[in-house]
Fold each of these.
Amino acid sequence: MDEKYEHIFFDLDRTLWDFDENSKKVLNDIYVNFKLNDSISSSNLFVVKYQEINEYLWGLYRDDKLTKEELRWKRFKDTLLYFNISDKELPIHMGDYYIENSPIQTLLFPNSIEVLDYLSKKYKLHIITNGFEEVQHIKLKESGLRDYFDVLIFSESAGVKKPHPYIFKKALKKAGAKSSNSIMIGDDLYADIYGAQRVNMDNIYFNPNKTEHDKYVQYEINCLSKLFEIL
Ligand SMILES: [Mg+2]
């Protein structure tokens, strides 16, 4: 145990909650339920293209170049357009379906619960997330994570998204923490790691796919179980 720390701030999506696998499950359901097999030869093609488009549009959302409402349907509209499906209503229905069904998925990264059981006995745990607030609440509850966390900070209510220093400062204040006794754990080098560095908070980069990078990070782990050694 590192005596230095009292507070641990976690990112949620792709750090504890397995966003990609949970999302894939719902996208497969969309492929079947909206009968996309008439126009797109495999569910996997649909999923891969959606993920590519969604990632690009999320970047725009994070930079405030796209609203939450636009993001919800535009990611489906653009995916369908790629497959030459032009429809005004369909992307909206798909967006609604996705938002309703995605947060009730419960797949977590391996060892999430074991690690949280261990850490919650030694530290105060908190969440800082850029995800949609009402959606994140459902995910936390459905996946059994809610009770591990003290303070939850959402970019929507903070008014800015990670890596903006204000959301980290707000989280520290609400938790009664200081950057000097806190550490941030997240999967995003920009939002989580650079964000933490901007407020002089220690950081752990969760990199389950061992993606290569050239950024300075304090600690890097590819499995949450490594937290048993660090903290
Ligand atoms: Mg994340």
Note: The two ends are 5 Å apart (CA to CA).
Amino acid sequence: MSVNRRNVLLVGGGVAASLAFSLASPNPASSQSMAGPTRWDREADIVVIGSGAAGTVAAIVAKESNASVILLEAQPHTGGHAICSGGNIPLGGGTSVQKKWGVQDSPDLVFQDLTDWSIVEPNGAADYRYNDREIIRAFADNCAATCEFILAHGVVVVDKAPDIRGGGSVGNSLPREMHAAPMDWPLIQTGKPADPANRKTMSTGNGLMQPLIAAARNVGVEILLSHKMKSVYREQPNAGPVIGVSAENEGRTINIRAHKAIVLATGGSTTNVNFRRMFDPRLTEEYCGAAGMPWSEQDASGEIAGMAVGAALWGLANNTGEFGSKITKPGTIGCQYGYVNLRWFPGSEVFDRARATGLKVQNWQDVITVNMIGKRFYDETGGPFSANNYHDVNPYIPGSYLNAQGIRWNSQNYLNAAMAGIGDGHNGGGAIWAIFDAEAVAREKWDPNPPNVDFDGGFCFKADTIDDLARKIVMKYQRVPMPSANLEATVARYNTFVDRGRDEDFSKPGPLYKIAKPPFYAGWATPVLHDTRAGLRINAKCQVVDMNGEIMPGLYCGGESAGGFSLHGLARALTQGYIAGKNAVA
Ligand SMILES: Cc1cc2nc3c(=O)[nH]c(=O)nc-3n(C[C@H](O)[C@H](O)[C@H](O)COP(=O)(O)OP(=O)(O)OC[C@H]3O[C@@H](n4cnc5c(N)ncnc54)[C@H](O)[C@@H]3O)c2cc1C
């Protein structure tokens, strides 16, 4: 065995101990219990897992309270989903930004909004009803302070009044969203800074996370990239404080001692097929293009590590309710990663993993969508699930059942139809394809060639006849061959609807355009999983709670890996990072 650099970086044990240990066990973690390793490689007061919204804030807060902090990040880059995000940040409760624009908010109003049981979506789903009151109270009380914290750490927001542009379930009473401006920071989507004309006005997660990561480094947080946390060590298997974590770096196991606390901020569970199916059995493998991928995963590693030492899950209803953006209609087609607000361009450091930018659909009249057996299943112009925002319920009487008066079931729901499946006994709906022709390409001004579409990966196909197109659709998630007669019949029938000006199957308005001019295309258009709204049980201090309702000493969690809170996105994650960081050092 060779003595490499890592062998001489050990805390306490030294080279000899390292050699002895390594010889006895090439993979130390595999031979030790959750109760801890025989030797620690690194140590810090606070070990934070995940460099996204929650983890980065927690790490800065802890470091500024004079704790030593190690921040582990599984990816070779920082930022998580937060840096991929739209940077629309619904932090309210009386922030300086709200005050500047004359919006009068308060923690009590935030709490009232996010716990109003009476609010329901057009489909009847109640998006605040299952929020844990203790967790929302803590959020409401720390929301404004978190806003001031990020502003004080370099985040610049677009100079305009708060609005509701990109939120989800952010409360009916007031506009709360501010928007992070990218300024001169490079965009991870392109590798280059934004156009100077837009730097102060566009909204992007780059504008939120680039300054926060820089701030973390400036204050002395030690960030270990490509270090994936694998397990949490606890004094006894299901009792006592947590004492450290194991992480994997380039195939080796590193054990890191946490003297005071561990903060799990791993960002949720949408990309772990087995885990996500605990909430919704339909979410099988074909939902392979989660939003935020391939920049980072949401593989439930925080939840799984916490559960392995006794943690409970919490607020699971929030992850099964049909509201918000947990599952979304794709916005781009012909590539694996089709989330509506995120595109990867050559120049991005993850473009080799993304493989294609995708074709952005401006008008769903330009395509039809078909399932694996070549049949249309819905009006393609239909929307995804909705989410409650400021004034969505209008008039609004806080806490009154009268708010539900007048809501109508919104049947224009693309997602349930896409996920209904083909009646072959499988759980997932299977691959969904957008079918279009050369005329659609011209109308949309698409260039359906690499790097815009992913022919090699099997997420886009092209042929001169519909018959050929159906035969060509062979890929991992197309679990049955598409009968070409079906696709031919579907296209022919749709074209008659265009002639007649009436979609007799699904009432698509118009429909406007025939699919007739070769070449023909099939572009991947399968629903996209977006965010997680259930995870580990936490209390008001973001302490993780076990299956007996007991606090697990030293273990904290925030963001999408924590449960009990159905608010989409950044505000929840940033604020819980703030709360967790403060309490972890306390
Ligand atoms: C495309 C997109 C657009 C969005 N737009 C908005 C928006 O405009 N407004 C809004 O409010 N929300 C938005 N969101 C949601 C928001 O970005 C997330 O809710 C938020 O980032 C969650 O924060 P988090 O800290 O929990 O997770 P993340 O920000 O995802 O961070 C988690 C980090 O943990 C790392 N990690 C995971 N497992 C491990 C492990 N085992 N070891 C070490 N590291 C690990 C991940 O690699 C990642 O870096 C958007 C999300 C996406 C993907």
Note: The chain has two domains: 32-326+531-586, 330-381+433-524.
